[in-house]
Amino acid sequence: MSRTRIKICGLTRAQDVRAAVAHGADAIGFVFYASSPRAVSIAQAAELVALLPPFVASVGLFVNATADEVNCVLERVPLQLLQFHGDEVEADCARFGRPWIKAARMRAGVDLVEFASLHPGASGILVDAFVEGYGGGGKTFDWSLIPRGFGRPLVLSGGLDADNVVDAVRRIRPWAVDVSSGVESDKGIKDTAKIAAFIAGVRDADG
Ligand SMILES: O=C(O)c1ccccc1N[C@@H]1O[C@H](COP(=O)(O)O)[C@@H](O)[C@H]1O
């Protein structure tokens, strides 16, 4: 069984980037959504991305951004993966020539297979709880909405933390997990001990 990849999202400080990398994160997410308390400026993101060593991916999170807004970020920040977390359709996501993932906001009635079929070019489908403000709400959802044998790389997110991630990984066996609130002491401020415990939990579940 392959190792579950780990993305830590919503970083705003150099020490948090260093901590996530030191504890073994595979990817670091930067939020380019002005309404988020974790939003970073282009200049701030460029400085933080420069701290990443080889083989730790930089991910840019966007919510209903215009092409100009995304291109403006891409001109200054070397992002390896784009995460679209709003109401974007396939064409909105595919126009930048970069690998991308698409978030599904999960609640009763969402058909994940149908959702995924509408985003054939996505490298993976991220599942998050349906919350006001599009994401980063620290809220779990009913994991039984994820069909068995989903067939696309699945990124599990939404209210994960060190306490529930072991069970989540054992039950769902996602390609990757993504966490923001569950490793914070305050919005946008990560807690090194929580990052360490979260990553240890994933490794424990991987066995
Ligand atoms: O982090 C945010 O502020 C954010 C804002 C808007 C959309 C998505 C956002 N974050 C993503 O939300 C999920 C779940 O986060 P949490 O662990 O429940 O806080 C995750 O994929 C973040 O990347």
Could you give a quick summary of the protein structure above?
With 207 residues, the protein is α/β, with parallel strands linked by helices.
Task: Write up this protein.
Pathway: Amino-acid biosynthesis; L-tryptophan biosynthesis; L-tryptophan from chorismate: step 3/5. It catalyses: N-(5-phospho-beta-D-ribosyl)anthranilate = 1-(2-carboxyphenylamino)-1-deoxy-D-ribulose 5-phosphate. InterPro entries: Aldolase_TIM, PRAI_dom, RibuloseP-bd_barrel, TrpF_fam. With 207 residues, the chain is of the alpha/beta class. The protein has a single domain (5-206), classed as TIM Barrel (Alpha-Beta Barrel). Helices cover 30% and strands 22% of the residues. The chain contains seven helices and ten strands. The protein has helices at 14-23, 42-49, 67-76, 90-94, 112-117, 165-172, 192-206, and strands spanning 5-9, 27-31, 57-62, 81-84, 100-106, 124-129, 154-156, 176-179, 184-186, 189-190. The strands form two sheets. It has an eight-stranded parallel barrel. Helix 6 (165-172) runs parallel beside helix 7. It is globular. The mean pLDDT is 97. The chain binds ligand LGQLAAA5. Residues 9-10, 29, 31, 33, 36, 38, 61, 63, 85, 126, 128, 134-138, 157-160, 178-182 line the site of ligand LGQLAAA5.
**Number of DSSP strands?**
10
Helix content: 25-40%
**What does the radius of gyration come to?**
16 Å
* Count of alpha/pi helices: 7
Q: Runs with pLDDT <50, length 5+?
A: none
Provide the CATH top-level class: Alpha Beta
- The proportion of residues in beta strands is 15-25%
CATH topology: TIM Barrel
Strand order of the largest sheet: 1-2-3-4-5-6-7-8
CATH homologous superfamily identity: Aldolase class I
Q: Mean pLDDT, nearest integer?
A: 97
Q: What CATH architecture would you give?
A: Alpha-Beta Barrel
What molecules are bound to this protein?
ligand LGQLAAA5
Domain count:
1
